[in-house]
Amino acid sequence: MELSEKSSVVVIPSLHPDNRLTAYTAELCRAGLWVIVVDDGSGADYAGIFKLIAQTDGCTVLRHETNLGKGCALKTAFKHLLEGKLNADFIVTADSDGQHTVEDVFKIKDRLTQNMRGVILGSRDFSCSIVPFKSRAGNHITSMVFRLLYGESCPDTQTGLRAFTAELLPFMMDVPGKRFEYEMNMLIRLTRSKRPIEHLPIHTVYENNNSGTHFQTIRDSARIYKVIFGNFFMFAFSSLLATGIDIAVYNVLLTVLFNAGQNTDFQRIAFSQTAARIISCTVNFFFNKHVVFNRRAGGKGFFLRYVALSVIILAASVGLVSLFKVLTGINERVLSLIINLTLFFISYRVQRQWVFREV
Asked: Among 16, 60, 202, 264, which one is most buried in terms of CB atoms within 10 A?
């Protein structure tokens, strides 16, 4: 079989596989695909399985001496492709635990060859009765949080069945993450860079209650949620920092102007509040720009959009609290808490997608 006959490659990271992987890779190769299997430090007990896979025509086995994680295994295969060791126009990643059928591999590969844009994700149906409760609940929560923070609907955030063109290989190599969090980072980076993501329904397969997975619920979930909330927590810290500065500057200036004894109460309050707000917003702007959203260029445009958003958020807060006070009669302090918390989440998404958008 000549390399030139192949234009698609399936990348399969694997740790402690069983004999099903041998049959699976052989079936993919017989169907006309190149396969790269990455042995992610499985050890001597599994050497026989990988040896059989390596003997399959059209299959390459790459090895890690120790377990480095799924993200590292995928990047090892991507590096292999970037180095020209195998010529492929389309890359499909699949798991080694039997969740992805050959039919579905071809389904998302064929879809990619039709539109040649972005990334195609194989999306499982988590309403199926065969899905373990922890998998169903975990995915629903993660999908909800992802949509709330990043504005992108992703019904299966942890799917390992993904397809993209070879032009995206350098992008994929730059995505951070060594283990399962790599796949979440990939989704976040794709969303931020406005690359299209298409979700294609695939078979929902959970064999033996998904006993073959190496996903550690507590440890790996913590890594994933750290990735999801990373920017948001920094955004929240930035807001708290700005609020603290605002209060401190306001009170210091009130005291200083009071001791000066040459200003009316209105002058002291107006000047102190205005100066405090200018200083706190300036700190908040630069912290968000350089730390939260990690932007270097586009300072003037960022600042003008930030000011515009700040004015809109302030007007929305005053207007909505006043409106709902009249309509519902609910205490304005309660309304202010609810409305401003909602506007806080909206502000995060608008700042990420518009104010500090990538230039």
From this structure: 202
